[in-house]
Design a protein that fits this description.
single chain
């Protein structure tokens, strides 16, 4: 359910920090820290990225996505160990009952193919169309990529100061040549009112990594979830701004002081394509993510065990792949429903309690298989509403949300 009273997504001008204005910097640090706690999203202006660069980037991406499908699929991400390349409409489904209606194209640091033998997880060469097919795409995307790397370092320095850390605390994590960074462009097709009910631009999810910087065009469609009111709120495009959001890794690192917020892209009714470009900061693979000391109050304990970046990313990717497979081929959900729930049919409270027991004792995957079945069955509205609450509990306890 979307809300008619949107929550405030702060728009923060960071030029005072870039110009070394001490007074302005104090206010900027405070504003970013507050936004990172709630709602976990903000927009930044005064960042110094030339509008000519973003205009040129979007122009070349339009040319790329307009290529014949066979030229795009020749660059499919399945050809890349680093998951670089093209992704077609409908290949992802992050939310129950609706497909993701988007095309994607992802790049990272531009490794030379001969160095690929030394690549680790999510490292490797990019795939590019022939220069004659999309003149200038590679040059402009890599120019933009480098600008985003620099802007990311700026944002992490502001975050460090907001956490009471040395300004350079995250510099190696985000600024090293070995840092895992990815840039993913999306094109969302025009949508009719009928189609918009059956699809999402991107289904509800949180971001795996530490920090995301997003360029969105003027059409809009990005929404964030406000957990206290269980409502969705739009992130209205602001001319010249980048959307910034906290990812799961930074939420973990800060002991939940900063918030990785559930978000999605709805399919806005439009006769135009929508374009966006997301830059993801995943960090150094060997970096240990453990509670930052300044994020612990006296007597408070860390909520998470230490984990290396590579392990965190591999586990999240494996979960994503496993749940995707489970959505495609669910094993006898009617039998599972009967086994765990049959004797309590007609008692919504008891039914939801049993489903929760399945999640907590048998495991999130088993429990969510039941929830998937329950929400697509002819069960009562009360059961469905109860299942929604169970999903919220799973989310709060660290589980991944499959259905909303």
């Amino acid at each position: 359910m979307s809300s008619s009273a949107p929550i405030a997504i702060p728009v923060i001008d960071i030029r005072g920090y870039l110009s070394d204005d001490k007074s302005a910097t104090t206010s900027i640090i405070s504003s970013i820290s507050s936004a990172a706690q709630s709602p976990g999203f903000l927009q930044i202006t005064g960042h110094g990225i030339a509008p000519e660069l973003t205009t040129r980037l979007l122009d070349r991406l339009k040319a790329f996505f307009a290529l014949p499908i066979e030229k795009k699929t020749a660059l499919h991400r399945n050809n890349s160990a680093a998951l670089r390349g093209f992704e077609a409409v409908g290949e992802q489904s992050l939310e129950k009952g609706v497909m993701d209606s988007k095309e994607g194209f992802m790049i990272g640091p531009d490794w030379e193919p001969e160095n690929a033998k030394n690549a680790r997880f999510l490292q490797g060469p990019n795939q590019w169309p022939a220069e004659t097919d999309v003149v200038g795409l590679r040059v402009v995307m890599m120019d933009y990529f480098r600008e985003m790397q620099a802007l990311s370092k700026t944002m992490f320095r502001l975050i460090a100061l907001g956490l009471g850390l040395e300004e350079s605390y995250f510099d190696e994590f985000v600024g090293s040549e070995d840092s895992i960074t990815m840039c993913r462009a999306h094109r969302y097709p025009p949508t009719t009112p009928e189609m918009s009910e059956k699809s999402r631009g991107i289904g509800a999810h949180t971001d795996f990594g530490a920090l995301t910087l997003l360029l969105q065009d003027t059409i809009g469609g990005l929404e964030v979830f406000h957990r206290p009111t269980e409502t969705w709120h739009p992130v209205q495009p602001v001319d010249g701004a980048f959307v910034v959001n906290i990812g799961d890794m930074l939420e973990r690192w800060t002991n939940n002081k900063y918030t990785s917020t559930l978000h999605r892209v709805i399919s806005p009714v439009s006769n135009q394509y929508r374009y966006s470009v997301a830059f993801f900061n995943e960090g150094l693979l060997d970096q240990m993510i453990e509670c930052i000391p300044t994020c612990l109050e006296p007597g408070q304990k860390a909520l998470y065990e230490p984990v290396k970046v590579e392990q965190h990313l591999r586990e999240r990717q494996a979960q994503n792949n496993r749940y995707r497979h489970m959505r495609i081929s669910m094993r006898k959900p009617d039998s599972a429903f009967a086994q765990y729930n049959g004797a309590q049919s007609g008692d919504p409270v008891k039914e939801v309690t049993i489903i929760y027991d399945v999640i907590t004792s048998t495991g999130v995957a088993a429990g969510k298989e039941l929830l998937e079945f329950l929400l697509r069955s002819d069960a009562s509205t009360k059961i469905a509403e109860g299942a929604q609450k169970v999903i919220a509990v799973v989310n709060e306890s660290g589980g991944d949300v499959l259905v909303l």
